[in-house]
Amino acid sequence: MRFRHPDGSVVHLSYCTNVHPAETLDGVRAQLRDHCEPVRRRLGRDRLGIGLWLARDAARALTNDPAELRALRAELDSRGLEVVTLNGFPYEGFGADKVKYRVYRPDWTEPDRLAHTTDLARLLAALLPDDVTEGTISTLPLAWRTPYATDPGAPRTARTALTTLAQRLDALAELTGKSIRVGLEPEPGCTVETTADAIAPLTDVGHERIGICVDTCHLATSFEDPGTALDALTAAGIPVVKSQLSAALHAEHPHLPEVRTALAAFAEPRFLHQTRTRTAAGLRGTDDLDEAIAGGALPDSTPWRAHFHVPLHAPPAPPLTSTLPVLRTALTRLVGGAAPLTRHLEVETYTWQALPAELRPRTRTQLADGIAAELTLARDLLVDLGLKELP
After folding, report:
1. For 138, which of 68, 169, 177, 213 could close a Cys bridge (C-beta 3.0–4.6 Å)?
2. Rounded CA gap, 33 and 373, in Å?
3. Radius of gyration of the chain (CA)
4. How far is CA 94 from CA 67, 167, 191, 233, 237, in A?
């Protein structure tokens, strides 16, 4: 979906396909047929933006066979789908029964991360629509905090990898005329946990093609104020490459038994749900929701937020809610001003099948309806900010 900003530029809205993960190229094609095109039809649009997640094996298949890449591009066109952004954070295994800490490997100290991201950049340059010259990729925020924090050589290794990536992106732009930018995506528990944490390493890299991806669920989980965060990035000259529109789980009164019971329904074995609370002494947190619920790990006199991407249009029932207000505030700052801070927006609710059983979609139709409802909400927010939807 495309929108015209009042300044005349085009803002893209897509949804991320990691909600129906596939490890192979055949699986990616099945996504387009079984999920993406049906969502487009529900929205009644001739064109729908999707943020592809290409796992290692799928990316390698496309990299090694130009004919397969051309065929994928043709299939996107025939199904009314377009790609301007990729989710390069998960490397493989995102559809496994237990993902948890695995999603953070390889990190930016390992050669495979640089190689994979380079492949993604080259693929995206070929998949971009003919009338689009800029693509974006979100990536791991350097590493999970351990063992990175105890390795004195890790920061230098990661900086060298990102600098090498920037050089490759420059060469790619010169070769193809397509500018691909990569954004570190701050996430609780990682080396770059907040937007503030991103400023120093990105300043060290110092390249316009390497910036930040602002995920509004992660922003909210860390209790960051969107205005303060985005102002600091602007002041530091750090580009917001893309933003993922997502909402976290919020518990206003975590000391109440009924709130603990409600939260326990969201503690599940597949994904990590880092949980945070803000105290007078600073931010406190656990690596997962069940650790917080067990008691003693977190103070419960202040609200809790958990890294659980809840559907934008359907916050959980009381006594819980979502951080949709944080998304609204962030979006206003991102695209509601005289000029957009980013032109790539991506709805990223990948946890539909991790929701409590009674909230999960039971059929492809129900899932498509939910994704379409999320995109409709995001579209309405953009229109309210003065953007005009394009055909």
Report:
1. 213
2. 19
3. 20
4. 26, 29, 21, 30, 33
3-state secondary structure of 295: coil
The model's pLDDT over 216-239, given as tens digits with 9 standing for 90+, comes to: 999 999 999 999 999 999 999 999
Whether pTM > 0.90 for this model: the answer is yes
Q: What is the mean pLDDT of residues 122-133?
A: 98
Q: How far apart are CA 289 and CA 216, in angstroms?
A: 19
CA nearest 136: which of 180, 70, 80, 196?
180
The residue with tokens 């996504």 is: 31
- Closest to 371 in 3D by CA, of 70, 6, 31, 2: 31
CB 51 within 8 A of CB 15: yes
> 295: pLDDT confidence band, cut at 50, 70 and 90?
confident
Give the amino acid at 316.
P
CA angle (275, 374, 96) in 5-degree steps:
55
The token pair at 193 is 């946990």
Is the Cβ–Cβ distance between 166 and 205 less than 8 Å? yes
Supply 140's token pair: 């791991």
**How many Å apart are CA 188 and CA 218, to the nearest integer?**
7
Q: What is residue 81's three-state secondary structure?
A: strand
Cα 221 to Cα 88, 193, 226, 251, 308, distances in angstroms: 21, 10, 12, 11, 9
Q: Are 245 and 347 in contact (CB under 8 A)?
A: yes
Residue with tokens 């991790």: 354
Please state, in angstroms and rounded to a whole number, the distance separating the CA atoms of residues 157 and 365. 46
Give CA separation, 182 vs 104, 135, 185, 209, 217, in Å.
17, 9, 9, 6, 19
**CA dihedral angle for residue 83, residue 88, residue 93, residue 95, rounded to 10 degrees:** -40
Residue corresponding to tokens 């999320």: 374
Report whether 69 contacts 126 (CB < 8 A). Answer: yes
Task: Quote the distance between the C-alpha of residue 67 and its chain's center.
Answer: 29
Q: Within a 10 A sphere around the Cβ of 331, how many other Cβ atoms?
A: 20
What does the alpha-carbon distance between residue 24 and residue 72 come to, in Å, rounded to a whole number?
13
Is residue 308 a contact partner of residue 246, using CB atoms and an 8 Å limit? no
- Taking the C-alpha atoms of residue 222 and residue 216, their distance in angstroms, rounded to an integer, is 10
